[in-house]
Amino acid sequence: MEKLHFKYQATQPIDHPVHIGVVASGDLEVIMKPTDKKESELNIVTGSDGFKEVWQNVLTRFFDRYPLLADFEINDFGATPGVVNLRLTQAMEALKDEQ
C-alpha cells in the first residue's frame, strides 16, 4: 500500500462534491470536494507500489486539460492509467451533469 500526494495549479473551482467509482479489483474511486486553497491537492492511496511517476504523468495530462480546483481523494486497487483517466474524466463530467 502506497500513499501519494500531489499538488497542481488550477483555475476552475468546483461548487459541489462528486464521488465516482468504487474501490474494487482493478478499479478506483475519485472523490472531489470544493476547496478554498489556491491549488488542487490530491491524496492517493494505492495498492500498487512504485508507480508514482505513472500517476504524476496521468495527473499532469488531466490538469493540463481540466484545471479543476478541488481537494481530491483517490482510492485505487490496481487500476490502469486508462482507468484512472476515465474516472477523473467521469468526475469532471459529473460536475457538469449535476449543475
From TrEMBL:
Report the locations given in the UniProt record: Cytoplasm
Residues recorded as bearing O-(phosphoribosyl dephospho-coenzyme A)serine in the entry: 25
User: Which GO cellular component term is one of those annotated?
Assistant: cytoplasm
Q: How is it modified after translation?
A: Covalently binds the prosthetic group of malonate decarboxylase.
Question: Is Phosphoprotein one of the keywords?
Answer: yes
Do the record's keywords include Cytoplasm?
yes
UniProt keyword list: Cytoplasm, Phosphoprotein
Domain of life (superkingdom): Bacteria
Give the protein name, as stated in the record. Malonate decarboxylase acyl carrier protein
Give the organism the record lists: Lacticaseibacillus camelliae DSM 22697 = JCM 13995
